[in-house]
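seq as requested:
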Amino acid sequence: MRRIFLFASLLSLLITFFLAYYISRNWYVVFAVLLVVSCMGYYDMLQTKHTIRRIYPVFGRLRYVMEELRPKIYQYFIESDIDGRPLNRIDRSTVYQRAKEDNDTMPFGTQLDVYAPGYEWICHSIAPKNFSNLNHDPRVVFGNKDCRQPYNGSILNISAMSYGSLSSNAVEAMNAGARIGNFAHNTGEGGLSEYHLKHGGDLIWQIGTGYFGCRDDKGDFSPTLFAEKARISNVKMIEIKISQGAKPGHGGILPAAKNTPEIARIRHVAPGTTVESPPYHTAFSSPKELIQFIRQLRELSGGKPVGFKLCIGHKSEFIAICKAMITHNTYPDFITVDGGEGGTGAAPQEFSNYVGAPLLDGLAFVDDILRGLNIRHHIKIIASGKITTGFHIARTIALGADACNCARAMMLAVGCIQALLCNTNRCPTGVATQDPKYTRGLVVDDKKQRVANFHKHTVATFVELMGAAGLDNVKSITRSHIYRRVSLTAMFTFEEIFPSIKQGSLVDGAIPEKHKIDFDCADENHWGIVPVGGWSGDPESDKKVADAEIRPA
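struct tokens:
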């Protein structure tokens, strides 16, 4: 191929030069084009980094063009309406239609295979409720016995997405939409920006391991900066991010290309650098210290609701947190359960695909443990993970959630086309980029109404589903209302798949066999599992043991 290219390029240059010199000067244009292409080919043959280009000069470059086009070609011309990942075409279209207030009904029946394992549905009633008589804006009050400023929130809110990951226009559109629709907007761990505050929408301020916006020069938590911002009237709740479903156990990553001077100022970091959040918090180092940190944040914020977000990993660690709550009689106002199926955050492939419990499993576990320990009444649960429809809301509430957060659906509402370029700063719709040539295309005044529309119609559809099931109260939905097919001839309710733990049963010692080892390994003074023989009580000695390989007692 190299010889053919060399011979063809030289011959073409000679012929076009001859034609330009003897026939018409217009051929010089063709000669110039061929000269540029030839130079590219000669460079390809001489460079040593790319094998394909070295062997197939010029033509080898088409490989990279096809790689760039592949996701778009697949999405628009190859995949079916139900095959797309992470969100299929049907769900994406539903979000777009509701955001634009277009017709969102479906003709000719479902395209889903209702006999395939994994198909899920909600049971309807022969005596459904009149939709018009139901409350189409169900609310949840966040705030327990220690909260002095409870928050009356929607059952569907915007999940954590930082300014930096998203463009300023996208953040503004979401916050303005939240203001119109009277629901909350989670800031993500990137800190409070003027774009979060500009339109007056309710905010859940997320504090991650980098403590962006409330960190000192060393990157540690700053109580002074936190108190100053936490008392802003738009900030309704505080969320400590322990882990997220996109990359549990891994810190967040802000590429250098997205770290503009403005973002660096908001986060209190150096501009133009790749910012990696630590995988762990430095403000606390044990379940007991986490509970103390929650108490501190509640006091610094003036008594606002404080909670934490996590993706379930070692079950014993969550149980240890619950033990610390009971011991110190201090409870978070809410717990956000994220699913290992991930969200908008960019992450290494192994973390996205193979780390963290999926949402439904983690959610059922958290609700069971809180009920079993008789502390559920202190804590609201928020489910976060691939919520795009009213059925998804119903499914999570059936498993124990009080409310839901969604991220990807809100991105779609402001114009995302699932181009899968979020981590490149080249998002073509201006949603997940800081490049002005893309962001100028996202018009806040148009997109803010689409965010509000999507929220309104999705919640309304959930309420209609609830009415179809014969229910008039969100709290009446149980695990018995949702079915899943497990084979061609077998289907089970969620109650059969995720058997509930009775209220207070764990306090009475009736610990299910599957959780006994988790309770034995849970220690409020340590993360991780308990070493053989237990902890000695000496901090230095215990740290050496914790750093070594240990096994359950």
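DSSP finds 20 helices and 15 strands in the chain.
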